[in-house]
User: Fold this.
Amino acid sequence: MSAVRALVAVVAVSLALVLQVSVFPHFAWDGIVPNLCLLVVVGAALTRGPQFAAVLGFVAGVALDLAPPADHIAGRWALALVVVGYVAGRVRQDVRPTATAVVATVAASSFVGTSVFAISGILLRDPSLSIGELLQVIGVALLWDILLTPFVLPSVMAMFRRLQPDRALA
Assistant:
């Protein structure tokens, strides 16, 4: 990966993280905010593929794990976003994805990422919610991510396409 692509990817994740932890808590629904870092990783996966997105997912996840007000064991979001980046990148097609395919990929990625985060918390005995409350959190997070998809994904995907147009498939 060239230095410019790496810098742009880190800036995109940093901007998403800052918005996620500083602006969106004011619009939280039952304390749940949209996962903008996940949306950046999915955008990278759909344009660059699983390898790039998994690495970016790890970087975004570690940043999300360490950013205040993190109240969980570090590494849980890193694991979740690596899985999301890899799986979403494997879904990528050789043609430009349709809007329906992008929204479906975001929905599946949101469900998988939030579920991996929740299940890892249960396995690590991190202070957590009941199973019913976890399902509610997963549902609200999924809804948030789908609602923000039309506002975030087109610009993120266009940015990653411009970084290396000859290798972008979407």
